[in-house]
Amino acid sequence: MKRAALLLVGSPKKKASTSLVLATTLASQLQACGWESQVAHVCRVLASEPQQAQFMADLEHCDCFILVFPLYIDCLPAPVVSLLEQVAACNPNGYPQKKLVAICNCGFPEASQIDIALQICRKFAQSCSFNWLGGLGLGMGGMIDGQELGSFGRLTKPLQAALHMTATAIDQNQPIPQQARNIFAKRLLPRWLYVAMGNHNWKVLAKKHQVKDRLSDQPYQ
Amino acid sequence: MHALILDGMDADDSFSRSLITSLNKVLGASASSTATLSLRKLQINWCQGCFNCWVKTPGICCQHDDGLVVNAAEAKADLIIFLGQVSFGGYSSHIKRALDRTIPMIMPFFTKIDGEVHHTRRYFRRQSLLNIGIMAQPDPESTAIFTALMARNAINFHSQNYATITLSPTDTGATASLAAALTGLLEQLP
Questions:
Q1: Is residue B61 pLDDT above 80, yes or no?
Q2: pLDDT at position A38, please?
Q3: What residues of chain A lie within 8 A of the CB of B71, using their CB?
Q4: Among the four residues A22, A92, A115, A208, which has the most C-beta atoms within 10 Å?
Q5: What mean pLDDT is predicted for residues A189-216?
């Protein structure tokens, strides 16, 4: 029987997100290793009780649960926390036969800002008796912004390689290799360039919405 | 000094009531006003990650629900107190739902703070933060993660005066510990 992975995309964005791109890339890598992969979206899961029940059934069926989410206020987005709370409450015996992996991306250049979010994921794994295989943290996630990793050419080839290492580790029931973690943590661009591009991009978007002169508004003052 | 208590507890139980009473008692002498928002009674949708609050309606979330009430209260507060359960070392979903909706309160632009990139501030009121995490049983590892989380948040909220305390209903000295933590924070107020 094929082994199954359940990937939860924790981005609340309705359109394509960095989390979705990372999840679907890893799902493909796992399929290449002979796994079944299913990608679920946290807000759709939480939208109704039947969806939540289906998610819990899918979780029960899977061999590996993979959280892929953006950093929100230094930790997990609220819908992801809500779903994890339900997962924990739903099964007091935990999930000792299942593996857990977490992949987090943030808009800051430093992947180290993700460390606490991954500690929370590890604590969740421990609380629910998952076999914690580790986590990956990616900075400069704003660069990817829903575009396929392949569309960035050589720039993101290492990320694809790191996800392949991660898929292999999951397949072999091994911790995520340090090499994969190092690749993810390495900045895609020089920090000064990313900051300059980011700051410019916000102004471009504000101009598009005709609020360039109101960016600093303080509506509650 | 205006204080805001964001009560993110799941239920109105006797333990959380005793904590809020203890907070109000300590604040009584120091605060000109104290507001308490029970988050479980508010309708706050998930943040959609749309960034409209940065580039379309600067400073205001496009979701017109009680998240706006929380933002308005936060902007007026000199001291913000978060009270909620600890989930896996982090905030519970009740508190986190409200916290995610504070993104309009900062700017999209990047700045460097102590060698790291963070967002610049939108408002310049100096705010102190007290983070109270409730756990069914004491758990040093969860406490360590929760404490580190508040330290990171304080950077992003541009707050230099903050404290974290974790408590359990089994702590016989919980209200006294809380009062001491709050008193210590108030002594550091600018």
A1: yes
A2: 96
A3: 220
A4: A22
A5: 95
Instruction: Establish if A218 touches chain B: CB-CB under 8 angstroms.
Output: yes
CB atoms within 10 A of CB A140: 25
**Given a cut of 90, is residue A139 above it in pLDDT?**
yes
Contact A121, A135 (CB under 8 A): yes
Which one, of B69, B94, B99, B98, lies nearest residue B84 by Cα? B94
Query: Could you tell me the pTM of the whole model?
Result: 0.97
Extract the tokens encoding B34.
């104290």
Say whether A202 and B54 touch across the interface (CB within 8 A): yes
Contact between B55 and A211 using a beta-carbon 8 Å cutoff: yes
Closest to B100 (Cα-Cα) out of B67, B122, B72, B54? B67
Whether A81 sits inside 8 A of B153 (CB atoms) is: no
Least Cα distance to B19 among B133, B95, B186, B139 occurs for B133
Using one digit for the tens of pLDDT, what is the confidence trace for B89-141? 999 999 999 999 999 999 999 999 999 999 999 999 999 999 999 999 999 99
Q: Which of residues 38 through 97 in chain A touch B, CB cutoff 8 A?
A: 43, 70, 72-79, 81-82, 84-85, 88
| Beta-strand pair B106-113/B116-121 | antiparallel
Q: What ipTM was predicted for this assembly? A: 0.96
